[in-house]
Predict the structure.
Amino acid sequence: MTLDEVKSYLRVDGTDEDADITALMSAAALYITQQTGKTQRVTGYNSDGTAANVDITTDELYNTCNKLLIAHWYENRGVEVAGNLTRITHSVDAIINHIALCGDYV
């Protein structure tokens, strides 16, 4: 996932916030990895029966989770917004749980 893809998702023009968005991208990737313990996705099996894996960053579900998490942190830059604690959306929690428990990720 590129900075331009994330900026498009966030609907951000210009370069003023590139450093902040790049930091959020790194933080989101690290957060997902630490929460799930997964770094690869199984794409099938080789002729010898071993799993054929690709880097998890090529997985659309992982990238969707990344974008949702980045957007959440970007839009809620403080711990508290208008008297309400900002909690990570159910979608992020559900995807992280899926990646952590699904046998398609290692």
